[in-house]
Amino acid sequence: MWLTWLDAAQKLAQDPLPNNIKDSAALKLSPEGAAHVRPMIKAVAAKAHHLRAALTELNPEARKLTADAAIKTLKEAAYGKDNKKASDVTATDALGGNVATDNRQDTCTAKSGKTAANSVLATLACLCLKPFGGTPAGVCTEKAEGSATWSSASAAQSNQDVRNIASSCPSLKNAQNKAELLRQAIAVLPTLITTDAANGYLGSFKATNCNGAQGNGMCVQLDNYPADTKAGLAKLPWLTALTTLSSQLIQRAAYNTAQAELDKHLAAEKSQLEHLLVEPIKIATTEKTLGADGSASESPQNQKECDKNHNNKDNCTKNGCDYDENAKDGKKCKPKPGKENTATGTGEGAAGTAKASSGCAGHKNQPDCEKDKTGDKQNCAWRKGKDNEPDKDTEKCRNGSFLVNQQLALSMAAVFVSLVAF
């Protein structure tokens, strides 16, 4: 929590103060109000910190993952290029090069280079496309079987055949929880691999190899798969990429769910915090409106009553106002003097007590100012003004509540750092 407090303290040291702190009700509290809410503010701050700390930190790679990056990874795994789609992918894109002069058996063995390992479509081409002059059928859907143009060592697959395979795959555009569906598909794939003594085979395998011949297999060969299944699966880099992406998507989905729940709880804590800060001000304002003697001399309503009687001395005095026949501003009927009218929140220490505010303002020199104490507690301070105080650049005797409230604002700012700044 120390770093959060440090960040808050640095914000309080700024001049001018950040708006969310400068405008805070914390800086308008009286010393009594600040003392009243400080333990509650600390409790809210501790709870906010606890809630935030409970959110499991997201893996850095998952945190960096964007929707665009995820789509590019999916496209590259599926089509061999991250800027392709089912309608414009080519056989060269899918296999990583032109395989017209390569043996189908070599192309359909998972290894680096122009092979079935390059993309999902390249793998499916080995599983689905009938060879030139061959008769195997029914391995994939009829649409995905192709036009039998792939001739080992003499002709590559046609672009249209590869596109037909891509377009025959089901659409999951409107599916819910795509990350989980991807994870499930990845988990199922190893269960589709068959083996002999030496190798593994994804697809339809009968004997010898995956050259597409009727008696052999339309498949992808994974060399030495029985000896090391993990290394065998790693020969399909598109599978590795999708496994990583699936994990990151699931982490991010879980994080987003937890984040939404956290935001809801923190919003409630923030609302409670704002209520705690405002309530003492409401109470102080009510007390001032009534006046220390129970009169309404400082009430805005009383000001209105006085304003009605600038031309009637009798009515002016009957309404508890003072009448000045020679008032320079023409406003002859005014509320009785003697207290700062802080009910509107404009005087120094607007939410402080009338006694503390008027008392400090009445001291015209530093020694008298610093002698103003209640027991050991300093009521006033000889200083320049801060934000929200009049005559900022003038040193004079000011209400000490602002200094107290700076400490309270530190608690408040720390809470806001937890509530907002992450």
What does this structure look like?
This protein has 422 residues and is mostly helical. It has two domains: 2-56 and 270-283 and 348-420, no CATH class; 65-235, no CATH class. Helix content is 48%, strand content 8%. The protein is built from 17 helices and nine strands. It has helices at 2-12, 19-22, 31-53, 60-64, 67-79, 91-95, 104-107, 120-128, 159-168, 178-188, 229-233, 237-290, 300-307, 313-318, 354-362, 366-371, 401-420, and strands at residues 193-195, 200-205, 217-222, 321-323, 333-335, 373-374, 377-378, 380-383, 396-399. The radius of gyration is 39 Å and the shape is rod-shaped. It starts with a helix and ends with a helix. Residues 286-298 and 338-357 have low confidence and may be disordered.
Could you tell me the mean pLDDT? 79
Helix content: 40-55%
Q: State the distance separating the first and last CA atoms.
A: 14 Å
Return Rg in Å: 39 Å
Unreliable sequence segments:
286-298, 338-357
Number of helices: 17
Question: How is the biggest beta sheet arranged?
Answer: 3 strands, antiparallel
Which class do the helix and strand fractions yield? mainly alpha
- Topology as H/E string? HHHHHHHHHHEEEHHHHEEHHEEEEH
**Total discrete domains:** 2
Q: Strands of the biggest beta sheet: in what spatial order?
A: 1-2-3
- Strand content is 5-15%
Can you count the beta strands?
9
Molecular shape? rod-shaped
Function: VSG forms a coat on the surface of the parasite. The trypanosome evades the immune response of the host by expressing a series of antigenically distinct VSGs from an estimated 1000 VSG genes.
Domain Trypanosome variant surface glycoprotein C-terminal: 306-420
Protein name: Variant surface glycoprotein 3089
Subcellular location: Cell membrane
